[in-house]
TrEMBL record:
Positions with a binding annotation for a divalent metal cation: 18, 148, 196
Family to which the UniProt record says this protein belongs: Belongs to the SMP-30/CGR1 family.
Residue span(s) of domain SMP-30/Gluconolactonase/LRE-like region: 16-256
This protein's record includes keyword Zinc: yes
Cross-referenced InterPro entries: 6-blade_b-propeller_TolB-like, SGL, SMP-30
Protein name in the entry: SMP-30/gluconolactonase/LRE family protein
Organism: Chitinophaga fulva
Active-site residue list: 196
GO biological process: L-ascorbic acid biosynthetic process
Length: 290
């Protein structure tokens, strides 16, 4: 197994760092603190700006042909720009105030796929939704506990429900957006943590942030083999994304949610954002299309 190192990128500490994203048009790294209700943008000069959203904010995707992002919020998706702030709501995913958005990404056709999860029980109460243009959101995968880690590669979609410790592989039709479950592509041993955020490189290998696993792990979805690990000096690694001018850098978020004061004292780097330079190239972000 190949080992890679990460370095401190931006100190928080953030309670629940997530939503890592490289914004090409701004040459900026972005992430959120879900429980801190805030979004952060770090420009190429190293200036970090905090945007207080005022509610849970879990993910962001860029909108094609605009200077805007779509944000996953408490139970809705809304428009946002750094200049104008929060804009109009695009979709309500679920009227249940006990649910919030979690991870989400756009597919190659420009549809937004976004999951919900329960604030307390975290067991089969959420769902994975698909939002296409201005149409109402459609449930694609029901009864999800903690929706995470969406990537697409050719006619395949990979998705994980953190609570299952598995990455599922689906047949994916780019034209219709239809998916069909095929198999469990990666099964993660409990001692390596649980699968959280996920990204993919140009070779089709999955990079998974593993909660409780002290790192981002590189897996082969074809045979389920573990290929490498980026070591992170915090146990709860929550999200990872390729970016940078050459797409060979990775931003990694961590969390200190549910940690006791004693654990935080033992693992003081928890909740910071980390960065790694890699000998692999990531795939560019997909944009939402109206």
């Amino acid at each position: 197994m190949e080992m890679y190192q990460s370095t401190l990128f931006s100190p928080g500490p953030f309670e629940l760092g997530e939503g890592a994203f490289w914004w090409p048009e701004r040459s900026a790294w972005c992430w959120v603190d879900i429980l801190g209700h805030s979004l952060y943008i770090m420009d190429s000069k190293g200036h970090r700006t905090q945007y207080h959203i005022g509610e849970y904010v879990s993910m962001m995707v860029p909108v094609q042909g605009s200077n805007e992002l779509l944000l996953g919020l408490h139970g809705r998706v809304a428009r946002f720009s750094p200049e104008q702030g929060l804009g109009r709501t695009l979709a309500i995913l679920d009227g249940n105030p006990s649910l919030r958005c979690n991870d989400g990404k756009c597919d190659p056709a420009g549809r937004l796929w976004i999951g919900t999860m329960h604030l307390i029980t975290q067991r089969d109460n959420g769902a994975l939704y698909c939002l296409e243009h201005n149409r109402p959101p459609v449930i694609k995968v029901p009864q999800v506990s903690i929706s995470n880690g969406l990537v697409w590669h050719g006619d395949r979609m990979y998705f994980n429900d953190t609570a299952t410790n598995m990455v599922k592989e689906y047949a994916y039709d780019v034209n219709s957006g239809e998916i069909r479950f095929l198999r469990n592509a990666v099964v993660i041993p409990a001692e390596l943590g649980c699968p959280d955020g996920m990204t993919i490189d140009t070779e089709g290998m999955l990079w998974i942030a593993q909660w409780g696993g002290w790192g981002v792990y590189r897996w082969n979805p074809v045979n389920g083999e573990l290929l490498g690990k980026i070591e992170v000096p915090a146990p709860h690694v929550s999200c990872c994304v390729f970016g940078g001018p050459d797409m060979q850098e990775m931003l990694i978020t961590t969390a200190r949610e549910h940690m006791t004061p004693k654990q935080i004292e033992a693992y003081p780097m928890s909740g910071n954002v980390f960065h790694a330079k890699l000998p692999f190239k990531g795939l560019p972000v997909n944009y939402f299309r109206y």
